[in-house]
Amino acid sequence: MYNKIYKMGITKTDIFNEQQNKLALQLKALAHPARIAILQYIIKQNACICNDLVNELGLAQATISQHLKELKNIGIIKGNIEGTSICYCINEIVWEQIKKDLSLFFDVNVKANNCC
Amino acid sequence: MYNKIYKMGITKTDIFNEQQNKLALQLKALAHPARIAILQYIIKQNACICNDLVNELGLAQATISQHLKELKNIGIIKGNIEGTSICYCINEIVWEQIKKDLSLFFDVNVKANNCC
DNA sequence: ACAATCAATCGTAATAATGCGATATAACAA
DNA sequence: TTGTTATATCGCATTATTACGATTGATTGT
C-alpha cells in the first residue's frame, strides 16, 4: 500500500533549512501552558526551585521536572545546585537570542493581501 | 496503581489562565518547520495556492493541506476561492495580534539572575 | 550512621501530532 | 456530458507528547 520509503510520524527536518528547524524547536519548547507559566513564575520570583513550581502550578513533581528539562534543552533557563535543591533562573543571553530569532521571523513587511 | 483521576496524555488547561493557554496554542501552531516555511513562502509571494506549496516544499498534498488547516485554525492565514484553487494569504490583523501577544510575554524585564 | 528532603529518571498509560495514500468534492474546460 | 484540476477529508501507521507513580541518587541535618 505504501510504496514510498519514509518514516511515519516523524517530522521531515531534512527538507527545511537551519533557521526553520531551529525556530520550530524553540517555539515547540515554549508551546505549552505549563512551560509558559514556569517561565512567568521564574521571572516574577527572579529564581525558584522545582518544588516551588510544584506547589504553585499543581502538577506532579515528575511532570514539572520534565517541563524544566525541555526548557533547559533550548537553554532558556539554567539551574544551579544550592544544597539539596536546584535554583532555576532565566538565561538572559538565550532569552534575548530567542527574542531576536522571533523578531527576524515576525518583523517582516506583510503586504496588503491581494486575494482575500 | 493510579488512584487519582486524571486523563493521561492530555494537557491540563484548566489549571492555567486564558493568556497562558492562548499563547501556547498560538506557539504550537507555529512550532513546525513546514508551517514556518509555509508562512515565509506566502509572505515572499504575497499569496499562493496549496499546489505551489506542494511543489516548493516537497511534502504530499494531504500533508500541506493539514498544515494549512492548523494555520487557519489560529487565523494567521485566510483562504479565498479562485476558480478551482484556493488562494492563501496572511491575515495581517491576526499576524499583528500574535506579535503583540508575544511581545507581552517576551518584553519583560528579565532581572540579572541571582543564583546561577 | 540514619533519616529527611529534593530533584532527576524510569516505566507506563493515554492522547496528540506527523505524514501519506486513497477518496470525495467542487469548479472549470472541452 | 465527460474529463481535468485543485483541495479537503478519511483512514492508517508511526512517533511524539503529556502526565504521574515509583524509584534512585545526592545532600543536609541530627
Mean pLDDT of chain A: 94
Give the CATH topology of the domain at 33-100 in chain A.
Arc Repressor Mutant, subunit A
Strand order of the largest sheet of chain A: 1-3-2
Radius of gyration of chain A: 18 Å
User: Helix proportion of residues of chain A, in percent?
Assistant: 40-55%
Largest sheet of chain A: 3 strands, antiparallel
| Gross geometry of chain A | globular
CATH class assignment of the domain at 33-100 in chain A: Mainly Alpha
Count of helix runs of chain A: 5
> Percent of residues of chain A in beta strands?
5-15%
Quaternary structure annotation? homodimer
Classification by helices and strands of chain A: alpha+beta
- The CATH architecture of the domain at 33-100 in chain A can be given as Orthogonal Bundle
H/E element order of chain A: HHEHHEEH
The CATH fourth-level homologous superfamily of the domain at 33-100 in chain A? Winged helix-like DNA-binding domain superfamily/Winged helix DNA-binding domain
Q: Total strand count of chain A, please?
A: 3
